[in-house]
Design brief:
The protein has a five-stranded parallel β-sheet. The chain has helices at about 20-25, 35-40, 45-55, 60-65, 75-80, 100-105, 130-135, 150-155, 175-185, 190-210, 215, 225-230, 230-240, 250-255, 265-270, 275-285, and strands at about 10, 30-35, 120, 140-145, 220-225. The chain has about 290 residues and is of the alpha/beta class. It is globular and about 55 Å long. It has one domain (about 10-290): 3-Layer(aba) Sandwich (Rossmann fold), CATH 3.40.50. Helix 8 crosses helix 10.
Length: about 290
């Protein structure tokens, strides 16, 4: 795509550590990224360029960051790709239209500058990698994974999780017979439903990878959230190398301020013994134990 060189996409299930990874990578001087400015004004690109221009300025930068944060810009994506944020299934390569390619090719380069010449994008939920690789063949995909027990616990304690309204209000499509049976077996437990959500997203991600050509699969890397927390500098260096980004000294100086801990064991403190037992049983039934300690 003209104007974009190897755009970088951070994807994950949600509640997986994608936000803190985005904030850290946004410290790299060569990366342009979406902020809350993009979300409020999705078609006024010069405002985003102004924000990025002063992002690391000594005086204005800290003031700007008190009100503007790096992250998802769902308004932008929904303006350019109808339903991008709320599709009942994953977006695939076959869904890409000529108009969508054209709109993205004309819009996304407009937030780049001579210094911030690479694009960083973050979103969660469906990973949409088939769609992304069709539009951006040279895209780099950072798939951040977190222990499913921690993700379920986090979903249960966020006010915006729509699972409390039932599975038909989730954006993951209808439950199949096996999923319905598990949900009913646990008396339509929120724990079971959140675990099913995790599995649906992860399974679809794996199917999407299998649909890609071998050379495109090499453009995807898995990032264990626990390693990002426990060995931050090493993991960031691996990401920079994978994305072909320079190991800038300013970047590592700025990322040192992020003191992150995995909190992967928080479910043991938040959930009752009954809920913990149910969580572990559901993990086993859904074959999610392979993702423990990520």
């Amino acid at each position: 795509m003209d104007g974009l060189d190897r755009p970088i996409f951070i994807v994950g299930t949600g509640r997986c550590g994608s936000t803190v990874l985005t904030k850290m990578l946004a410290e790299h001087p060569h990366l342009a990224f979406f902020t809350t400015v993009s979300n409020a004004f999705p078609n006024i690109f010069f405002l985003q360029k102004i924000a990025l221009g002063v992002w690391n300025a000594p005086l204005l930068g800290p003031l700007l960051r008190q009100r503007v944060i790096a992250g998802e810009a769902w308004t932008f994506w929904d303006n350019h790709i109808a339903g991008f944020s709320k599709s009942y299934r994953d977006f695939k390569a076959a869904d890409v239209s000529i108009e969508q390619k054209t709109r993205l090719s004309n819009s996304l380069p407009r937030i780049l500058s001579s210094e911030r010449c690479r694009l960083l994008v973050k979103y969660t939920g469906w990973t949409r990698i088939g769609f992304i690789k069709e539009v951006f063949p040279d895209a780099k995909i950072l798939h951040i994974r977190r222990d499913p027990r921690a993700v379920v616990n986090s979903l249960l304690h966020t006010e915006f999780w729509s699972g409390r309204r039932g599975p038909y209000h989730l954006n993951w499509g209808p439950l199949n017979d096996a999923e319905l049976a598990i949900w009913d077996h646990y008396d339509q437990s929120f724990i079971a439903l959140a675990a099913i959500e995790y599995k649906k997203i992860i399974d679809e991600h794996q199917r999407s990878i299998q649909d890609l050509a071998t050379e495109q699969q090499r453009d995807i890397i898995d990032i264990p959230y626990s390693r990002l927390c426990n060995d931050t500098a090493s993991q960031l260096r691996e990401i920079l190398q994978f994305c072909c980004l320079a190991e800038d000294k300013r970047f590592f100086q700025r990322t040192e301020k992020y003191k992150i801990t995995s909190q992967n064991e928080k479910w043991k403190r938040n959930l009752t013994s009954y809920q913990q037992k149910q969580l572990l049983q559901v993990m086993d039934e859904l074959e999610l134990t392979q993702y423990y300690d990520l």
